[in-house]
Structure formats: structure tokens, C-alpha cells
Sequence to fold (849 residues):
Amino acid sequence: MKNFFKSIFIIFLVTSLFSQKAFTDETKKLLSTDWSFKGFFGKFDRASLQRGYQVYTEVCASCHSIKYLSYRNLSEKGGPEFSEEQAKAIAANFEVTDGPNDDGEMFTRPAKLSDKFVKPYKNVKEAMASNGGAYPPDMSVLVKARSGGVDYIYSILLGYDDPPGDISLEDGVYYNAHMYGNKIAMPKPLSEGLVEYNDGTEATEEQMAKDVVTFLAWAAEPHLEARHKIGFKAIIYLIILSFLVYFSMKRLWSRIEPKV
Amino acid sequence: MSAHNYVPSSKLGKWFNDRLPLLSLSSHIREYPTPKNLNYWWTFGGILTFCLVAQIVTGVILAMHYVAQADLAFESVEHIMRDVNYGWLIRYFHANGSSMFFLAVYIHIFRSMYYGSHKSPREVIWIIGMIIYFLMMMTAFMGYVLPWGQMSFWAATVITNLFSAVPLVGESITNWLWGGFAVGNPTLTRFYSLHYLLSFLIFGLVILHIWALHIPGNNNPIGIELKKPSKDTVPFHPYIVIKDLFALLIFLILFAFFVFYSPNLLGHPDNYIEANPMVTPNHIVPEWYLLPFYAILRSVPDKLFGVIAMFASVFVLVILPWLDTSKVKSAIFRPLYKQFYWILVLDVLILGYMGAMPAEGTYLLIARVATTYYFVHFLVILPVLGYKEKTLPVPLNITEPVLGGSPNPDMVKKKELYD
Amino acid sequence: MSDQKKLKRRDFLFTASYAIGAVGVGAVVWPLVDQMNPDKSVKASASIEVDVSSIELGKSITVLWRGKPVFIKRRTQQEISEARAVKLEDLKHPEKDEDRAKDPEWLIMVGVCTHLGCVPLGNKGEYNGWFCPCHGSHYDTSGRVRKGPAPKNLEIPKYEFINNNTIKIG
Fold:
């Protein structure tokens, strides 16, 4: 029985060891910050999510879609938790195509809560054509789509630098210390004071990077808080039940074996 | 199955049982004599049954919401994750359940190899088990394609392309598999159908697997054949049921850690990028449980021989009962075999690690050495060991050594025999 | 320890295990059942807003709400009087017209026959209202069943005028 527990423990160790693979060959070690949603009891910082939404809308949304989010998500539990009125007002800022109407024509109308986030480009080809052939990836699950996750995206945002002497850059390509291959087609998106936060927080680059990445982490995992909460209860429950069943088992087996 | 003189207690029960003997079957299972010295490595059969049922239940539910169409598949999975009530839970359970299923099956297979459960008279149980394992790999492979991420698409491309290695008809077979000239929507829809079908084939084979087991009965840690029932056995219910339940709960704790706190640890980030036939990911890797075979495949420079080597690595497992010539079952009494066994375990872990690495340089060299050793273990070492190895004396029954009446007093002191 | 006490402790252990186990089974079964309930995107489309400014007197439009047709009829004075004049005792499903149409000019009903679910046809039937061709139910100018197998009047959904021209249904 000891061996059984030993092996489960080893499996656990091995998998957690393999999870430290946030390294790539040439690029530097990733930057990180104190993400409020990490750890067993991690939660999203609501204010940070709201600021992050603001950064996304004002800085990123002109090129990056986030097509699997709906405007109603902004007021749902576990997210930025704007009030329903605020979320409705946010949605109404954007125009969506609807139809056909009774004349058979498509028409535009202000977005409702039930609509998905409006995309900056109609399709991938238009996005590429407008960005020198590079496609600004959709951000709905971007945090899960990159090795290194939130740390990686955070590092990219803050990783712009002058290229070292031996690297020459083509037109429309920039040097980034954390990008795979060190070259990125996106110009530096953040600069000091670029956004004027509604809640008055000082908009340093680190602050904006942290807030927008927090927002993206929520966008990729809107049920993270529920998942942590239910998970905690489930594991405690399983531990308690294991004890109960273990002692029941010993009790039961004692009937037939004086010493098992 | 022994003739059971079971008579149902109620009249209705007797009426029904005369027409379809389900109550007799239930009684047989409850009374089924199980060796009382089974250790926790024997609980994985029960754990596997749970995994299979869990995958089927969560899979059928996912199928209510998933859309198997190339333009909609990825989006439908996001719909499940975001909008379907508890969709995120069911999806993460199914995805991580696949990994847990393979973890359990590897432990189950390696337990058999250690204690000689593959040997006579249990050869057919072993072969059915190998068929189940093969179907599991096919099912998992096809299931992974369904979300239609980058890894889904490109793993499908790489693996289906292997068939083009077949001489003469290779390309036709591959186009037939694809339903086109490359992996695309026809491939996706047929993989969906087959993923659903194979799961139920596995279920049917598991029933045969258990049926075949019930003829000779379970093997046990000291590998001797027991009279059933006897003082060496206990009825399956409640003694083994509760032990299996306890082991399952511990297994579920590990499972819960993955599902609730690290649901994407065992997956690959690239599968959160929508499939793009124009862009290949930097490193195409299958899920961890297929890595050893991937390493073997890439060890051989020739495409066709690589495929043959990969299938051969499963085939040597199928014929294991005839490769392992030893008359002694349990590795407890086979000191040399025991060492080679652990070297094999290490070899498989190394192969797995190499499967995740790029197939070049030192990694490739190590993979080749490990692949060669793998075949040497099964084709050379095992047959030879059976004849040459000096085994320890095997006790006559289970309780005898505990009571100190064993011919070999050393065995009495070895408490871990009965762990 | 006496055998009695041992027995009690053992039973308690088993009983506690079963009970706590049952709680777990229930907790597991609930998500598997709840996933079939309407999901969040369906619930988000649970209400619609309809512009009624272009509907002329005596005319009606049909809109799709929660997957079903909804009749929005702008009634004439004659239709209103007819509806109000009906005696409650004559109705299979007695309902006052005032309760069904708070603003008597506007009759808003789910266009699904209460018999077996077909869509009744407007301006048809012996009572100047709707007629269901499937099994011959007749509805009057208030959408109440007057003849035929339908057991209940046409359903009035939750609705409100959010301004003079717009109704929010649901």
C-alpha cells in the first residue's frame, strides 16, 4: 500500500516537473508578476479586469478580435462584473450586422448583450492584408494557446527593446526579447500613459500589461473561479470519503483476517 | 463459469431469472472467489472500468453539444466551455479522463508483466487486453482530432500520412482514409463517427476480457494457481469491491487535481490555435501516452520501416505469453527478470521523453538505442531468461508462508510480499 | 469494548460512508443532468424587443420568440367589443379579455395551439379570430378557445411596452 501511495506521489512529481517547461532555446527567461488568479484559491481582481477590458478596447481591439466573448460575459459572475446596465451601454457602442429584414436586406444595429464581441476585420484574410501579411491572432484563448501562458504574453508586451548589433530587421518587423526567434510583426503596443484609466490608476506599461493580461486570462477561462471553488470542495470531499472507506475496509477485512 | 446453484429469493426474481439469468450473473460476481493476497496494483482493473464508463458518459454528453464540421468544431468546443451549464467541467473531465485512462492502463499492463498475469492459462485475457489497448489508442487519437486545433489537424496529417508508406497502394489508402487529398472535413466527420463506435467496441471487449478472466480466476502476487474457492480466496463482494472503491477514490483525488487545478497541463498549447492547413506547428507531438510509439516510429530513418517498427512494438506485446518462456509467473521469485523488468520500465520512460523531443542529434541517438533495447528485451532477453534463470522456490499456497510453514524460511521475513 | 458497542461503531462507520458517498453521487449527477438545460447563450436570447409602430389597425405581425411564433395583433374597436361581450360561462377556459390584453388595442399571444402545438391561422374560424387546421380548434378575438379539442386559450407571454413603439417580450 505504501508503494501505491509512493507511485501516485511520483506521478504527481513527474508531471509537475514537466510543467516547468516555460523555457525556449534562445529567448530569455520569462517575466512574471503576482497574478491574483494563480494558486488553489486564486481569484480574478475585478478592478484589474475592468481596467484590462479598457486596455483591450482602446489599444488592442483595432487589430485583435476576441470573437468567443459575448457582451453579456462582461456582467456575468466571475468576470469584470460590470453591472448589466454598464454592459448594455458598452455593447451599444458597437455596430453589428443583422438581417435579412423583410426587404431581404442586411442592416446594422447597435450590439446587444447577447451579441458576440465585434471583430475589427471581416475575416482572417482582411486582417492579414491590413497588417503586412501577419495575422493578429484572436485573443479569446490566446493565453492557453501559448507555452508560458500569461507570463509569456506579459513578457512579450514588455519585451520590446533595441535590437542587439548583430540582428538586422526587415520592414514591419520589430525586435522582442521574448518572441520565438526574437522578431515580431506587432509594433510595441503599450507606452506610458497610453490609456487614461477610468478608476484613476496610473497607467504605467507594467500596469497596463498586467491588467490586459489578467483580462485575457479571464477571457480564456471565464469559469476559473468556479473551477477552483468546486475543485477545493471536491478534493476535500474525496479525502474525507477516502478516510471513511479506508476504515470501513479495515473493519470489514478484520472479520476474516486477524492480521492482513 | 462454475455452475451456480443460486435461487432468487422472490417469486418475481425467480420468474425473471429463469428467462434471463441476470440475477445468477449478479450472484456469480458477488461470490466470485478472489485471491485474498491481491495488492493495490490489482485495483486498476476496477479503476479502468470506471474510466471507461466515465469517458462514455461524458463523451455522450459532449456529443450533444459538439458540432463535427471543420468550420464549426473549434467554436462548438468553446461554446461548451463557455455557455453549456458545467460544460467546462465535462470537457476538462473528458480530456483529462483520457490521460487518466492511459495512466491506469499502463499501470495495469505493467502489473501483469511483473506478476506474470499474461502467462498460461491467461493468454487470451492478455490478447483481448492488447486489442483493447490498441483500440484505446485509436479512439484517443481520433478524439484528439475533434477539437480541430493545430495539433488535432497536424497529428492527423502525420499519422494518416504513414499509410502512404505502404508500397503500391499507399497513396490510395491514404486518400481513402482522408476522404480527400488531405486531412479535411470528411476526415473529421468520419473520425467523429468512429470515435463514438470504437468506444463501444472497447466496452464489449472489456466484457469479454472479464469473462475470460473469470474462467481461471485472478492471478495473484506470488503467481501460484489457487483452488477457488478456498481459504486463500475471499468473495468479491464486499471485500474486493470496497478495496477497489478505496483505490478509486485515491485515483480520483489525483484526477481532481488535474481537472480543477491544471486542466491543460497534459495537453499542448498549440491545440488552442484553430487548425490551419497552411501553417505547421514548430513541433508536432502526440499526447503523452502515445510518445513512446512516436519515438520508435521516428527512430527508423526509412518511412515504411518506421511504421513497421511502430506496429511491431505493439505486436511483440501481443505475443508476450509465448516470448516469456519462464514457468514461474511472479517476478518476486525471478530476481534476474525483476531487474530487466525495471530496466524495461526505464527504457519506456526514456522513449516517452524522446518522443517529446525533436528527432535530431543526441535525442535521436538515445531514441534509437532505447528502441533497439526494447526489441532486444522482448525478442532476446525474455526467451533466454525463461530457460537460463534460476528462480526462487515458489510457495504452495498463500497462507502457508504467513504461518511460517514454508520450506523457505526467508520468505516469511519478506513482509512486502503481502503488501 | 463490548460487542454491542463494536457493532454500533461498525454500523455507524458503514452508514456514514454510504451517506457521504450518496451525497457525492448526487453532486456528480447534477452537472450531467443540468448540462441539458438551456445554456447561457439560449437564455441570453430569452427576450426580444419588437418595433410595432408600423402595424396598422386590424393588422398583425408574427415574430419569433424563444423558437416559437408570437402573434402581435392591433385590434379594431369591434374586435375588442366582441371579445369583451363574451360571457365567462361560455368559455372552456374562462379568462377575461381585460386580463389578457391590458392595453385592449394590443393582443400579444404565443401562436401555438394548446392542443398539440400547430400554428393557428389568423383571420379564420367561426369566431373571427384564429383557426387551427390540424384538428379544428377555433379561437376568438381574444385568442380564447371556443370550439375544438384545444384545452386552453392561447398563451399570453410576459411582455411590456418599454416605449410607445416598442414591446419587450420575455
